Amino acid sequence: MTDKPGGAFDDHRNLLFSVAYRILGVAADAEDVVQDSWLKWSAADRSQVADPKSYLVRIVTNLAMDRLRSAQVRRETYVGPWLPEPILTSTDTAEDVATAEAVSMGLLVVLETLTPLERAVFVLKEAFGFSHAEIAQAVDRSEESVRQAAHRAREHVRARRPRFKTDRTRQRAVTERFLAAATGGDINTLMQLLAPDVTLWTDGGGKVRQAIRPIIGAQRVAAWFAGVAVRPYEGIAPVDMAVEMVELNGQVGLVFSDGGRIVATVTFDLNDDGVITGIHDVANPDKLRAVAARTIHHL
Question: Tell me, which fold does domain 168-297 have in CATH?
Answer without folding.
Answer: Nuclear Transport Factor 2; Chain: A, (3.10.450)
